Amino acid sequence: MLTGVGGICDEPFPWQMWKQRGWFHGALVVVSLSARALERLIPGYRNNEQNFDANYSGCFHFHLWRFGEWVDIVVDDYLPMLDAFPLFCKPLGTAGEMWGPLVEKAYAKCKRTFQAIEYGFTLDVLTDLTGAVCEFFTPDIDPPSNLFHILYKSGSCRSLMACWRNNKRLTPAGFNWTDDSG
């Protein structure tokens, strides 16, 4: 179960639903854990200013970090659908929370097409959604000697962090550091 600014995601492992775009949706999950990052990405998020209620205009504004500056991306509310469900990013969390699919549409617009975001890297999209400089560490291959200090300082500075697991190295007894197959 994931908790975020918008509440609790009841899906136990939502990334299992995301086949090829797991890299993008993983970044959305990380961003959803920070009200500050969501407010920067979705102007008016904290006050629920962009909604389907009063003064609804059919368009939504998002700010994406592109080439060293924030760019305002405006998208309409028409999402690619299949059998009455969004074709790509599924809404998760509280009912009717559509910011995920709309952010994905804004990101696709920024990249010019949905096909352009078919594959990618989570750190790249985290930079585009937050404007942050992202770092990548592999603790099993030449980790920095102060890795845990870096993680501690990052957490205390409210940095967004993500981790991945390698199923080939994960065993019932723990993490297998000696297996070079993964």
Write a compact overview of the structure shown.
With 182 residues, the protein is α+β, with helices and mostly antiparallel strands.
List the helices and strands and how they pair.
Blueprint: E1 2-4, E2 7-9, H1 22-32, H2 35-41, E3 59-66, E4 69-76, E5 81-82, E6 85-86, H3 99-110, H4 122-130, H5 147-156, E7 170-171, E8 174-175
Antiparallel strand pairs: 1-2, 3-4, 5-6, 7-8
Helix pairs in contact: 1-4
Protein name: Calpain catalytic domain-containing protein
InterPro entries: Calpain_cysteine_protease (IPR022684), Papain-like_cys_pep_sf (IPR038765), Peptidase_C2_calpain_cat (IPR001300)
Domain Calpain catalytic: 23-137
Q: How would you describe this structure to a colleague?
A:
- It is a single chain.
- By secondary structure, this protein is of the alpha+beta class.
- The protein has one domain (2-134).
- It contains five helices and eight strands.
- It has helices spanning 22-32, 35-41, 99-110, 122-130, 147-156; strands spanning 2-4, 7-9, 59-66, 69-76, 81-82, 85-86, 170-171, 174-175.
- The strands form four sheets. Strands 1-2 form a two-stranded antiparallel sheet. A two-stranded antiparallel ribbon has the order 3-4.
- Helix 1 crosses helix 4 (122-130).
- The longest helix is centred in the middle third of the chain and has 12 residues, at 99-110.
- The chain is globular, with a radius of gyration of 18 Å.
- The chain starts with a strand and ends in a 7-residue tail after the last strand.
- The model is unreliable at 1-8 and 12-18 (pLDDT under 50).
- Pfam families: Peptidase_C2.
- GO terms for molecular function: calcium-dependent cysteine-type endopeptidase activity.
